[in-house]
Amino acid sequence: MTDAACPFCVIVAGEDPSAREIYRDANAVAFFPREPATHGHTLVVPTRHVRHVWELTDSDLTSLSLVTIKVAGAIRTAVAPEGLNIIQSNGHAAAQTVEHVHVHVVPRWENDRMTEFWPAGTEETSADIASAARKITAALSGGTSTTSAEDRRQHLVFVQSVVARLAQASSTAKAWLLPIVTATYGYAITKNAPGIALLGVVAVMVFALLDANYLKEERAFRQLYDEVAGDGPVPAFSMNPAVAGHNRQRRNYWPDLRDWKSWSVAPVYLPLVMTGLVIAVLYAWVW
């Protein structure tokens, strides 16, 4: 099974004339990347389109591993590296740029151009490490989380209360903005004061930023809720949404484009901004 939009599937199909293929069998293909990191840097991919390592079958894994070891041996014979990295990444946060499982076989030499990618030290506490060990051990044995059902229900109540408060804050922001807009736009019209209309526009934009941020945080906590409800790998009673799902990365606290485009933000605030600008332009021209 292949994906016509996947560049690695195109190589597997033999339809990329620029690909420098070095090995092929029924289950895997090895080729050079377009920009090798070091001399002899090779990619090994399964012929079947598989996005992430979690989707590999036992058969996929066996054939991919055997070809990777075969390529590593050939690289050692051919270019005599002083060391070798075998790197396999999954997901954007792990620097996967093509969603087709691939293994980097990277020959290494002292002082080569590869930079150190392993962080110094750790941010994990002893409690974090112990919690992770318990959960991963349970998952490996087919067991369940060590968090009790009652603790999980209480955790969900805590998270849901935050979601409710964020939704209430969004409603309150809109309620506060209405009299501000009415006062500034009304004053601008009755007193021919375009500057006051622009002041109202600024107020609308500030409240829009607050509301979009409330929405961003609400979505993050809803993701946390889903992970806790699904017995995901979330520390007991954690209220940090950065530990859940798509939030597992360095968090950006500014609203994203999808937050601005939401039905609860753009359709509410954009007409108010446009109205204020129209009032300011019209009365500036009349004045």
SSE diagram, text form:
Layout: H1 7-12, E1 20-24, E2 28-32, E3 42-46, H2 58-79, E4 83-88, E5 103-108, H3 126-140, H4 149-190, H5 194-229, H6 257-260, H7 266-286
Antiparallel strand pairs: 1-2, 2-3, 3-5, 4-5
Helix pairs in contact: 4-5, 4-7, 5-7
Organism: Nocardia kruczakiae
Transmembrane segments: 196-215, 268-286
Motif (Histidine triad motif): 100-104
Task: Describe the structure concisely.
This is Histidine triad (HIT) family protein. The protein has seven helices and five strands; from the N terminus they run H-E-E-E-H-E-E-H-H-H-H-H. It has 287 residues and is of the alpha+beta class.
Descriptive report:
With 287 residues, the chain is of the alpha+beta class. Helix content is 51%, strand content 9%. The protein is built from seven helices and five strands; from the N terminus they run αβββαββααααα. It has helices at residues 7-12, 58-79, 126-140, 149-190, 194-229, 257-260, 266-286; strands spanning 20-24, 28-32, 42-46, 83-88, 103-108. It has a five-stranded antiparallel beta sheet with strand order 1-2-3-5-4. β1 and β2 (28-32) form a beta hairpin. α4 (149-190) runs antiparallel to α5, α4 runs parallel beside α7 and α5 runs antiparallel to α7. The termini are far apart. The relative contact order is 0.09. Pfam families: HIT (PF01230). InterPro entries: Histidine_triad_HIT, HIT-like, HIT-like_sf. Residues 7-115 form the HIT domain.
